[in-house]
């Protein structure tokens, strides 16, 4: 059972929090895991943790206790408890990500909000003539769609020149990513321009692959890129997140995807440096000018409970053998095993080497399914959900010139602690049945 809210907010918020919190001596059992996620639909093979994450029952209850404390006496809650509770959560995140200071960590709604905060500052650089018209922002072609829209809304509108780094897929090695990224920086610096911001995914969403962020950040430093923002929506709880090793100026990650928080919560790390301008929350309220962390903790009367349950989340995670490191290791090993099982069953292949994935992996779907467009992927996903009870995202890879009967459709499977092998067998059998029936996506369109 997670601790009550009082346990986390009445003490001294400056108390040191160990980077390796004490793990439970009695690890959580399979039955207890099943109970924690018993609210999941038992008729659905939910192998898509990457999209929305998963919150255990004990943490839903912890969140509810915070909500009731607010509703019981909101004046007392806002004056005496909210700031202390958020500071406690920020301190825990600061230790987990190896940041230098808690002031470098702000809590926001999600990674999309964090991107808006960073891109807003970049837009001001153009509108205030600190940057030259045509100076560049570099991002990966596989950047998340909402982040691309934010770049369009903030950077393009302000006069920035946006360069997308094309990436091949399937991928064979990190060298392919690094090579294309270097080419994009050359374009960005052509004709005397400056690259003002590089937006780098830590784990791309679709198609899914772990990006060599440390190497790309190092290249940016060598090429005199002004600012580096790492969009790691899938980062914490899914792959290694270390601010000192990565070395970016800004880094964001959701905590509701792979860190078991209720939606929605993310952190935004802003490196303390004279070269890093002061950022502001896009919702301006009474705390404007007191630093992003304080601004983000006071954006009006709203439900702050997702930001307050972080201590309880850490207690839940430490019931597992090895804590968060153990969870990540087992998720990675299992998703690779299940990915290889599916590829073997369908006679296809993985979208990248196993070392380039974390807790999600891409697998080619049989070419005979006739996935010929993004609309086909959406229709097939709905068909799998409604007819077979399988929830899984599907990606369309346009065929290259000269390709015949190529694999154009890929699925992205996730593995989290609640998943069972039967979830993946159910997916395998569904695809095998479609193939045996001679199904093609054209039938759905008709």
Automatic annotation (TrEMBL):
Region (Disordered): 1-21
Keyword Magnesium: no
Residue ranges, compositional bias (Basic and acidic residues): 1-15
SUPFAM superfamilies tied to this protein: PLP-dependent transferases (SSF53383)
Highest taxon listed in the record's lineage: Eukaryota
UniProt KW keywords: Pyridoxal phosphate
Entries under InterPro entries matching the protein: Aminotrans_V_dom, PyrdxlP-dep_Trfase, PyrdxlP-dep_Trfase_major
Domain spans labelled Aminotransferase class V: 75-273
Protein name as annotated: Aminotransferase class V domain-containing protein
